[in-house]
Structures are given as structure tokens and as C-alpha cells.
Amino acid sequence: MDWQALQLSLQLSAITVAILIPIGVLTAFFLQRSSFYQSAMWETFFTLPLVLPPTVLGYYLLVAFSQEGLLGHAIMQYTNQSLVFSFIGILLASLVFNLPFAILPIRRAFESIPESLQDAAKTCGLGPWHQLWKIQLPLSWRGVVTASIMTFTHTLGEFGVVLMVGGNIPKQTRTISISIYDAMQSLQMAAAGRMSLFLLILSFLSLIFTQFFLNRSNSFSQSSHA
Amino acid sequence: MLKLEIASHHPVMMDMAFECEAGELLALVGPSGSGKTSALRAIAGILPVEHGLIQVGNQCWLDTANQVCLPTEKRSVGMVFQSYALFPHLNAYENICLALSPKLTPADAEQLLREMGLLDLQKKYPRELSGGQQQRVALARAFARQPHILLLDEAFSAVDHPTRKMLYEELVKLRGRIQIPIVMVTHDLREARLLSDRMCILDQGKTLQQASPNHILKSPRNQRVAELVGLTDIYSGTFYAATADVSPSRAAHLQWGQGIHSVPLLVTDKGRIPDATEVRWVVSSEHVSLSKTQTNQPNQFAAVVEKNQQLGDISSLTLNMELPFVSHFHLDYSTRTLRDLDIHLLDRVYISLDPLGIHIMPIYADLSVKADEKRKRQQVLQIGAVLLVAGEGKRLGGVPKCLMKIENQTLLEKHLQTLEEFTTSPVVVVTGFYENEIEAQLVGRKVIQVKNSTPEAGQARSVRLGLEALQHQAKDFDIVIMMLGDQPLINRGDLRQLLEHFKIMPDGDFLLPMVNGTRGNPVLLSGQILRQILIEEPLMTPRKYMDLHPDRVRTFESNNTHYIFDLDTPQDIANFEAQTGISVFLPDTF
User: Could you tell me the strand order of the sheet in which B409-410 lies?
Assistant: First the structure.
């Protein structure tokens, strides 16, 4: 078991969730208030990482992160650090490829709030931010939790993009899925098996959690609407 | 007070205007899709409006002309939704506090809970409350904002009857607390009548009438309003206006029903409806009286009591009328009076309709269509007419049918009089058989007589000659009336109806009256088609042209048997005399 890789993976996942969930909430909030065409455009854009091959996404990220790329160049200038083959690089990549996992569940949860409740919130005198804070978020916590779990587990398991952008540098970019690949390459089947089993159990548990815990705890939004 | 004027096509079609005073409860009533809820949402600012003005008190919430549009949270509204719309993650107290006006303290919220009898339930979540309790919380929440207007969107429809009654009481109690306009949307007429000071009837996004419930029920503005407020007995008839010289008391008459079976009713003329107009009418129960014997009251008809449903003080009667064109008459009558009059089931009674209580309404048409129709109606048109009187009258033993006399007037005179009222040039009279006798009757009249020398060859030739003579007057006719000389019942009302219909027809060149699937007469055709027919083959007639070009023909569907009744056989005459009681005098046999 490559504990170092596991630690790095957990670290990467946690930071991704911490940054991406507030972004997801705000994006869902703005999407809900934009016109149909605008929100359809943005939603398509945010969903792209879900359908693009990781290599394609990895390629574009590499282009952006390289010293000739806009982002890579700017970061290099200000921090004197390269984005390629660095933890910051794979964190940025992780933020990009997890966009749909963070935004879509929250967006769906916002949408599922009955229109009458949203109208009622307005007629109670709540402005947009108060509506978000006092009504929308409490009523869609389930979507927020789902988004967090999905983002976390997806980051743990992501391989292609991380390998392309970060390579395989211990302590910096070697995540657990890359470590499994590495073990396989060097024919350490037992180690690969242990790590795979660990990821399997973790994914299974998080899905079970989403399925059971979220559905069992009484839903507010189901309770009062005829 | 609330003042609202909205004209919007998107997202919802609305063309409405209404007002509601402070302390007044206005009920918006209409079928689904009439725009009631949209109006409420527009007031609250939840629904965008293209053009409009909404003022509440001295605040302007919307004025599209001056680009004023307050967001919902800045409009001080209290709104109660059909589905309660309580926030499920907050308990009753928190729900109320969320809407609490900044001027109020949590103690005030508690006071509100106490007044609504909700103090024991304040810690309960909406899912733990019954429908009625939830709606009381919703009402309290609406009042917690200290709103300038209260909006109730089908607020009582989701709860059972006893709870609804209780909520009505709560509402009445709360109304006493603050003097604000209250606008209520409901599809329940009883609710609207019970609670509202005024009703506003909406249909297809438009305001049709706004008045007190009683006024609307007694005097619906038109047929559509009458239908929407649930009046079941809406009758049809033709209104004949009062003529000042004959009737200084403005007593007009209404021909109830259509065709030979119709009966006259005495009514009052409010000066709103033009003469000889097809109308609908209603009469409110309080203007109907019953008796067991015939009296000298006007508008009295015999009927048999077919059903009597006693609902406490009021009995709901179904009367089987002894009139051929109306089967039932429904009447709410005082149970006590019925008892005093000794009226029972299956008794024969006389019902009298007070002329003052007969409310006459124009037939409803869409407003934009109405404006267009008005413009078309007001056009000055060139109207010509051909009267066909060439027949031999063989089945009556050979008589000029147009010289039969009814009520001291020959049919020919009657028809010419009727036609001359509408035509802008002399009527063309086509004679064949008995041309000399008919000509003698035409002396001194401004008509053009055309003689068909071969009337035995059929009507087509006469028609053709008539049209040619008309065309020869070199007038650019807009409408041509083709009329037969043996239809005793055709009167100016019938002709006016056809002409008015022709004027507003969106397209088509012929107008053919149809009565229960039978083609009637007279037929109206456009001047354009007259010219078209005349350049076709020599035997082309309107009938033939109509058969060849059915797409150009429009029908005027009616129950009015005037259009199909003619005096062709002795049997026709016998029927006519039996049904109308009017004698027909044949001219001396020739």
C-alpha cells in the first residue's frame, strides 16, 4: 500500500471539494437566475468534462499550463513555479474535470424546489441572497452533500488527466490511482490489488451512503407539497 | 387602494384593468386559463409584464411607461398560495418570523400566532400540521409582513369544507385588523359571492365585468359573463327596440325563441342594444312570480312543476314549459310562498316574468374581433336585391303566391318594404306568370320590373335575368340579396342578421342560411361574384356556382325557421295558420 499516494489523493480530493462546492452553489444560483439560453449554454460548457476523453481534457490543460500557455505563463511570472508536473497543476486540473460533479447535483436540487416556495420566499420580502441562504440551501443540502461525495470520490479515482498533467512524481503528483498503475507496470500485483480493493470499498461505501443515508433521512421538500 | 392596468402578450396574454379599494375584497373569477392567477402574480411582481401600471396605496410598483418595476421583495404584499407554500425546513413560528416586517418584533409574531389559535402549534413543522392548520400559518405569515395588499390565490380550495368555513371566519376577522385591499382568486363562485365585496370576471386574459356579486348575477354584461357566473337558464331571442313615438315608457319587445314558434315578451329598453338584434337574455328568480291561475300580468306562460328540491327556505323548482322551443325553466323560490300558494309537484302553474327583471345581453365576441367587426359593420355598403316572383303557384291551384295576403298586406308589399329598408338602389322584381297582375301592384313603387317570357322553363332563367338587370344599373354592389316571393315569415330582423353576418364574414362570397341542415333563403352574394357569374356561361346561376365552388360558400347556421318556411302547398298554409293564428288570404284564383 502506497500510503504517501493515498495521503496525496485524500489531500487533493479534500481541497477540490472545499474549493469547488462553494463555486458549485454560486454557479447553480446564477444559472437559475439567467435566461433559458444562457443557462443552457453554460450548463453545456460545465458538462463537457463529463463526456470528453480524459486525454483530450489533459491535452488542453497541458497547453494552458505550459509556459507558452496563458495560465502557465502568468503563474510562472508571479510564483516562479510551473503548473505542469506540480501539485497545484493537478489541483487546477481536478477543479476543471470535477465541474459537472459539483455543479449539476446542486443545480438539480435547486430546480427541484417547488416554484411556489420560491415565490413565497420573494413575497416574504427575501432578496436573492437571503433566498439562497435561508431557503434554497437548507432545502437542497442533499444536493450539496451528493455533489461533495461525487467530487471527492471522482478525484480519488481520476487517472488520465492527472497522469497527463502531473506525471508520476512521488509526494507531488503520484495519486493512488497512478500508484496502482505504477504497481501494475512493475508487476507488484499484490500491492496493486490491495490499493484497488481499497478504492473499490471506498467508492462502494460512498455510493451506499448517498443511496441510503440521503434517501432515508426525511426530506423537507417532500413533506409539505400536495 | 390597488389600481391595475396590464396589457401583455408574453409570457401570458393579459389585457385587464381593475381596482380594489382599501378594506375591500375583490374576487377574480374565471375559468382555468382566464389569467386570474397571472394577474395576482403580476401584482406580486413574480410574473413579468410588458406594459402596465400597478399602484398600491401611494406607491407605484409598476409603470412600464416610466421604466418603474419594483422587485417582488420590495413590494409589500402578503400572498397566500393554494398549496400553502410553507417552508418545510422551518416550524410554524419560524415561517412567520421569516416574513416578519422589520417594524415588528418576535413578540408580535407570537401575538399573531395567538390570534390565529396557533400558539400550541408554533413548534410544529408544516408536515406535522393539517391542511387547515397549514393555511392558517400561511395567512398569519402573509399578515406578518404588514402588507399593503393581501393576495389570496385559491387559498381555500385545498381544504375540506368545515375547515374552509373556519378559514373564511379567520379571514373576516383579519380583514377587520388592517384596512388594505384584498384580491382573491377563486374558481368557486359561492366563495366569491360569500366573501367578496366586488367580483371581477376574467376570460382569456381579459376583464369582462367588474361589479358587486349581486349586480353581476342580475345583470351580466354579456352571454359569456352569464355563463361564467353559472347562470344556467340563458335564453335566446331577437330584441326590437322601443320606438319613442309608440312607446314613451321605453317598453320594447323581445321575441323569445326563433322562428314561427317564438313568443313576444315585454321588456324595458335600456338603449344599449340596437333594434332587431339577436340577443341572449336571463331573468333573476326574484323577478319571476308564480300563480296557480292565469292573471293579467305581462309575460305569463303556463308550465308544469316537474321537480321540487327543497333546500331549507329556498325551493329549487324545475318547470316544464308549455312552449315548443324551451323545455325547462329553473327557479329558486321561497318554500314558504310555495306553501302559501299551494303549489305542488306536477301542478300546472303560470309563471310571470317581470319586464324590469329581464336582462338582455349581446352575444359575446372576443374584444379584438369585436372592434374589427364594429369597423366592418359601420362600412357603408351598396346593397342590391332581386325578388323572384315569377312562379306559377301550381300546387296551390295556380295563384301568384306573392299576392297572398297576410295581416292585410300582400307578401310582395311586405317583402319590398323589408328589402327597401336595406337596399341602396331599386329592387329588381322578376315576374313571369301573372306578370300583369303583379305589375298592377307595383305601380307607384320605385322598383325595376324584369319580365321572364319563359317562366315555365324554370327559375334559373329568372334568376339570371334579375342579376343582369341589377348589373345593368351599373352600380358597384357590395352585397346582392336574392329573395323568394313566397316566404311569409322573413322580416327585417332576419334580413338584418344575414346582412350583419355577411359584413363581418372574414372571407367567402355567398352566405346561405342553414336551418337544421336545410338550405334556406334569402341567399346573399358579393358584388364581385355577381360580376363573375354574369361572365360565365349563359345559364350560370348563383345556386349552380355555389355547387361548383363550395369553398366560396359560408353558411349562417340558425334555428330560425323563417329562412326555410314557404307557402307552397295548401298544407303549408294550414300549418302556418294553425301555428301562428294568422289567416292567409289567397288572391282570387286566376
Answer: B409-410, B405-406, B584-585
